Structure formats: C-alpha cells, structure tokens
Amino acid sequence: MSQSSQAIAALQEKLIAKDAHQPEFLQALEEFLPSIVPFLEDHPEYLEKNIVELMVEAERIIQFRVPWQDDQGNWQVNRGFRVQFNSVIGPYKGGLRFHPTVDLSILKFLGFEQVFKNSLTGLPIGGGKGGSDFDPKGKSDSEIMRFCQSFMTELYRHIGPSLDVPAGDIGVGGREIGYLYGTYRRLRGAEAGVLTGKGLDYGGSLVRTEATGYGLVYFVKHLLKEHQDSFEGKTVQVSGSGNVAIYAIQKVQEYGGKVITCSDSNGYIVDEAGIDLALLKEIKEVKRQRLTEYQKARPQAQYFEGSVWNCRSNIDIALPCATQNEINEDHADILIANGVKIIGEGANMPTTLTAVKKIQAADIIYCPGKAANAGGVAVSALEMAQNSQRLNWSFEEVDQQLDQTMATIYKTCKETAEKYSHKDDLLTGANIAGFAKIAKVMLAQGLV
Length: 448
Ligand code: NDP
Ligand code: 2IT
Prior knowledge:
Blueprint: H1 3-18, H2 23-32, H3 37-42, H4 44-48, H5 51-55, E1 60-69, E2 75-86, E3 92-98, H6 104-120, E4 127-132, H7 141-155, E5 164-167, H8 174-188, H9 208-226, E6 235-238, H10 243-254, E7 258-263, E8 267-270, H11 277-286, H12 292-297, E9 302-305, E10 317-319, H13 329-337, E11 342-344, H14 353-361, E12 365-367, H15 369-372, H16 375-389, H17 395-419, H18 426-444
Bound molecules: NADPH dihydro-nicotinamide-adenine-dinucleotide phosphate and (2Z)-2-iminopentanedioic acid.
C-alpha cells in the first residue's frame, strides 16, 4: 500500500466513525476518495497540507424550522437545510430538493458531489445543496406556495447572487422557484441572480428547463461519436419521469433513438413502440398525475409496479434519471444480461458502489452523474451570467454552449483517466479532474 492510499484509508476510517449515521454521505466519500489516490501520488503537497480532510468538511451548514399552514388550517412544520460545501471557485451553487427522505446525509452527499461537478463545468461556481423533508405529493398549489414562502422567509438571509445561488432538484421545478423568488424579492428587492431555473419573463434562461436531460444526451453523444457511433436506432431505457427524464427522452428521440421505458416511485411503463413524449409531458408537467394514467391513455403500453431496473428487454443504453441508489447489484446483473453497453447517469449517485464495480467489470461504459448530469448546473451558471448582464441569450446560443460544455467535460474525464492509467474509467477521470482544480485553488487561497 502506498503512502497516499494509506493516508486516504486512514481518513476514510476517521470519517466513517465521525459520520456513521450518514450512509449516503459516506457512500459518496467511499466512491470518491480511493479514486484520487493516483493523483495524490503525483502531488504529495495536497496530503501534506491536509487538503482532502478540509475538503470533505462542508464550509457551513444551516438548518432551520419551516412552519406552514395546510388547507384545513392546521399548522405543520418541516425541516429546512442549506449545505454550503465549498466556495473557493465561486458562490455556492446547487439545487433545492423537497422530498420526505431529505436529511443531512442526503444533502451532504449531494453538496459534496456538486463541488466537483461544478468544477468540471469550467465555470466559476462553488458547490452547495439544500432542501426540506417536505413532501409535495398530494399538496394543493396554495399549500406549495405557503410552504415555499415560509422556506424562503428563513433562507433569504443566507443566500445572494455572489454568495449562494440555489436552483431546482427533486420536487422543486419552475413553479416552486417562482414562489421562492417572489418571496426573496419582497424581502430583499429584485435580484434575479439569486436563484436559477426562473421563469423566462423574470430572468430565467432559455434551455435551463431542458439542460440536464439534453446535457446528459450530449455527453453520451460525444462518447458514441468517439466510437464512430450515434443514438440512431439505439434502444434506450430511462428511469424517472420528471424534469431530467423528460428532456433526456426528448433529445434521444430527436437523435433517432427509441426510449422504451420511464418510471415514477410506484412503477414503470414499458412502451415497445417508444414513449409518447407529448402524452408523458401532459400527464407529468401539466396534470401532475401518476404514470398509471399513461397506460390508461395508451393501452398498448404496459405498466408494472416496482423498479424499472427489473425490466428484462434488449437495451443498448440506460439513463437513470430518478434518484440515488436506484440501481443495485441485482439490477446491474439484469442490465448486463440485457446487453447494455453504456450507462449515463442523469440522476445523482443512482448506482450503488457494488453495482458500479460490476458494471465496470463487465466492460460497460459508465458515465458518472457528476460529469454526465452537469449540463443543468452549467446552464444555471449561464443564467447567472445573463442576469449579471441584464440580457437574454437566444436558445441556439445557450444550447450550443451546453453542447460544447458537455463535449469538454467528456474529453476532460477521458484524458484525465488516461493520464492516470485508468483508461476508459470516466469515474476516476471525473473525480481527479474535479478534485485537481479545487485542491489547487484551496492551496492558492491559503486554506481559508
Ligand atoms: P423531479 O422531481 O422532476 O423528478 C424526479 C423523478 O424521479 C420522478 O419521476 C420521481 O417519481 C422519481 N423518483 C424520485 N424519488 C424516487 C424514488 N425514491 N424512487 C423511485 N423514483 C423516484 O426531479 P429531477 O428530474 O429534477 O431530478 C431527478 C434526478 O436528477 C435527481 O437525482 C436529481 O438530483 C438529479 N439532477 C437534477 C438536475 C436538475 O437540473 N433538475 C440536475 C442534475 C441532476 P415520483 O414523482 O413518484 O416521486
Ligand atoms: O444536481 C444538480 O446539479 C442540480 N440539481 C442543478 C443545480 C443548479 O444549480 O442548477
């Protein structure tokens, strides 16, 4: 065992003892830390200055109470959080998640990943994440509004266009960003750059809604191109039916691929003729209904309860776009048996560590979320740039920059992996490239 791997193993042990009750955060560390060892061998100064231990500690964590009144007049209370992980290369940047599973473990894993993802975009944004254990399912529009207003009544004092710029994530889309922004504006005045994912009429950017899904497909497109291949004629399996999934499906279809699945937290659709995107958008974006409605409207499609990753069918490309740890070891076996060649992560950490190992051992190309889903935050940074200029860029201009950014991220991951003798291991490439920049800047800024 080299000195660097010993140091990293010792640090991991310390962190396991410290945060034993935060399994998702520990999982993100376990995936990340061993992979940067080859880089640390070349750069002993980072271990000497203890940069890695500094980096795994969030700069600041804010937790607050969110009281709100339901439609029956009852007072309810939820927990709100903002994890401000790292700001050495720019203001904290990252989404807000509203989901009953939200806790510090989830938000620390997401914030940690966000630091390296944002570093990979090449844009001046630090990493953060926030949200609440509020469950938006079944809530009326008025309840959602009152909750967002209460959430922002506390959060506003901790954010700002040059300090921390939240956006959407699971359970937080355009509607919620609108209510959050309206409250911020009442408290602080109109500062468009304080949130991204805003409506187009009040400082939002074209392509932000589509950016994560499109960016994911651009990333895989550049990978395919290198292998003299394309999406044309490919069969694609998508999970989720939210923001990321919908626009990934749209772009795959535009490129001539056939998407045969999508899912929600209850079950999944298999539509061998290809997902009817207009129908899916109507059900999910307009009516906010469950996927069972898709099957009712399109009887040739099948609906199954449970995980979409239990689906057995011939698949070329799998795009998990729902949530963390949706693909476990057993699902990895099914994917391998289904003949999958590429897995591109639209979600954050959708694949368990053992499943990743199985997938990589089977020579399936694995595109880690922190690289493949960086298109969303990249366009958020372009939204911030437009807000600073008080100008709006055209759809084509933003879309082209997104495509270019994904091409660059892919190239960076691939070349970094090669440089450190991990050819085709895009996870190692992403982690080292993301880490190298943050570590260098932390050293340059004097460990503050
Ligand atoms: P949405 O809330 O729009 O959609 C989430 C989708 O995932 C829904 O279909 C939801 O089903 C499903 N889902 C959520 N939790 C679970 C679960 N526990 N089990 C099974 N399915 C589940 O969120 P997004 O599309 O924005 O986010 C999806 C993923 O992409 C997340 O991992 C997010 O962190 C990541 N991401 C998002 C970005 C963005 O710009 N929005 C950027 C980069 C990454 P149901 O409706 O039943 O809950
Ligand atoms: O996980 C993510 O990158 C996001 N949810 C988007 C963050 C952002 O600031 O646009």
